[in-house]
Design brief:
By secondary structure, the chain is of the alpha/beta class. The chain is built from twelve helices and 21 strands. The protein folds into two domains: 200 residues, Nucleotidyltransferase, domain 5 (2-Layer Sandwich), CATH 3.30.420.40; 202 residues, 2-Layer Sandwich (Nucleotidyltransferase, domain 5). The strands form six sheets. A seven-stranded mixed beta sheet has the order 15-16-14-13-19-20-21, with helices on both faces. A six-stranded mixed beta sheet has the order 3-2-1-4-12-11. Strands 5-6 form a two-stranded antiparallel ribbon. Helix 4 crosses helix 9 and helix 6 packs across helix 7. The N and C termini lie far apart (71 Å). GO terms for molecular function: kinase activity.
């Protein structure tokens, strides 16, 4: 039987990654194209410049197909995953009436307000890219949350949405057909005209699917621009305190997401650009004692809405520390913050995590994986797949390559390297976690005072 190839698109906050997989989940070609810096013309406004999302998807898809041993017509289907919480305002033909609003734009935290007469449709970024790719105004239900007029129990629009229904796209479940590649999109991406395109979900849920998260005894640490801990279940839990309920990338399932770190891995990238080569920084950080000799990082490089004066900081310099301490302190802050947030979520869900699954670019760092295992006191496993694989799994299910999501995950997701915790280091981190949980009680008044000067 001829091998069927699946193309997964992961349009993220910092880059677009496109990978060609076979039906067993083996990578056959891949490419990555960085996004351009966001436009920030005034405080609170964060926009993707011009048509950057669509341009990067076209460039990354063409590059992946150029390195693929097969032909474009060998691609059986496409899974489409884009950045969550963005807002796209479209003309009647599906093109942008104005730049896409980033998830960091303060306007996306408020319901849509009509100000531009050119706007005919209001959608998430996934709806916009679907329209460009297929010419159809359909989108996954699983990329709408928050201020969108979505019923999280039925995965459908509410009966009387605040946005006129004719301005909203039709909704489908993950794994359902969105449409097929148009002639114009084929020229832009290099895909064949008529290639089926399938719905996925929000990018965190697609990443969870591709990482192999399948039960509530595993915590997935998603190391992206926004870092969060996630687990999965079958209940919609609308009023939780330590987490919020999102749609999973399986119809009828939910993703429970802890409080997280805004600009999480962005901060790591920023520090790497200041301090030097990532490989050297990881090697040096591995030689720094746990606890970074008293240096701690407060990871607030982007203030939350409820504490707008909050800032990031390094605390505890005394002359012993160098650049490797700075780097390790950030990695420890990530692990200890998510350890506390994950524990609060587990307690509210009435579960306990047996293992920590780690996905995203930071999972490639052995020193970070060891810090995670030691902080949690649980085995940490490196995820071998991510959002591109999750998108390809959705295409595989939609095409019938595999009979359902369980079969597809079993066939296409492989377990990664496992890191065991060190009991002594875990005890040190257990004590240090209390410091991290209390430090903002001291830094918030300081930054509030500085903001008033």
């Amino acid at each position: 039987m001829m091998t069927r190839y699946l193309l997964g698109i992961d349009n993220g906050s910092q880059s677009t990654k496109v990978t060609v997989f076979d039906e067993r989940g083996v990578t056959r070609a891949s490419a990555r194209v960085p996004l351009r810096p966001n436009d920030t013309p005034r405080p609170g406004v964060v926009e993707h410049p011009e048509d950057d999302l669509w341009d990067s998807i076209g460039a990354a898809t063409r590059a992946a197909l150029a390195s693929f041993d097969g032909r474009p017509e060998d691609i059986a289907g496409v899974g489409l995953c884009t950045i969550r919480f963005c807002r796209a305002l479209l003309r009647a033909d599906g093109t942008l009436a104005q730049p896409v609003l980033s998830w960091m734009d303060e306007r996306v935290s408020r319901p849509y307000e009509p100000t531009n007469p050119e706007v005919r449709y209001v959608s998430a970024s996934s709806g916009y890219i679907t329209a460009r790719m297929t010419g159809r105004f359909r989108d996954t239900a699983a990329n709408y949350q928050g201020v969108w007029p979505i019923d999280t129990d039925t995965w459908s629009w509410v009966d009387e949405p605040a946005i006129p229904r004719e301005m909203l796209f039709d909704l489908v479940d993950p794994g359902e057909l969105l449409g097929t590649v148009t002639t114009e999109a084929a020229a832009h991406t290099g895909l064949s005209v008529g290639t089926p395109v399938f719905a996925t979900a929000n990018d965190k849920a697609v990443e969870a699917l591709g990482s192999g998260l399948a039960d509530d005894r595993t915590l997935l640490l998603s190391l992206g621009t926004y870092i969060a801990g996630m687990t999965t279940g079958s209940r919609n839990v609308p009023d939780a305190k330590a987490f919020w309920t999102n749609f999973a990338c399986r119809p009828g399932r939910y993703l429970y997401e802890s409080h997280g770190i805004r600009r999480g891995m962005w901060t790591v990238s920023w520090l790497r650009d200041l301090l030097g080569d990532e490989e050297a920084l990881n090697a040096g950080a591995a030689e720094v004692p746990p606890g970074s000799e008293g240096l701690i990082a407060v990871l607030d490089w982007l203030a939350p809405v409820e504490a707008p004066d909050r800032k990031g900081a390094f605390l505890g310099f005394d002359g012993r520390q160098g650049r490797f301490h700075l780097y390790r302190a950030v990695l420890e802050a990530i692990a200890l913050t998510l350890c506390g947030n994950g524990a609060a979520m587990a307690a509210e869900l009435g579960t306990e995590f047996d293992e920590v699954l780690v996905s995203g670019g930071g999972a490639g760092s052995d020193v970070l994986m060891r810090i995670v295992a030691d902080a949690f006191g649980k085995p940490a496993r490196r995820a071998e797949g991510g959002a591109e694989l999750g998108a390809a799994i959705c295409a595989a299910v939609g095409l019938g390559v595999h009979s359902g999501f369980d079969e597809a995950v079993t066939a296409m997701v492989r377990p990664g390297v496992r890191f065991a915790p060190d009991p002594g280091t875990h005890e040190l981190y257990r004590r240090l976690r209390q410091t991290y949980e209390q430090v903002r009680g001291y830094t918030d008044p300081l930054f509030g005072w500085l903001a008033r000067q």
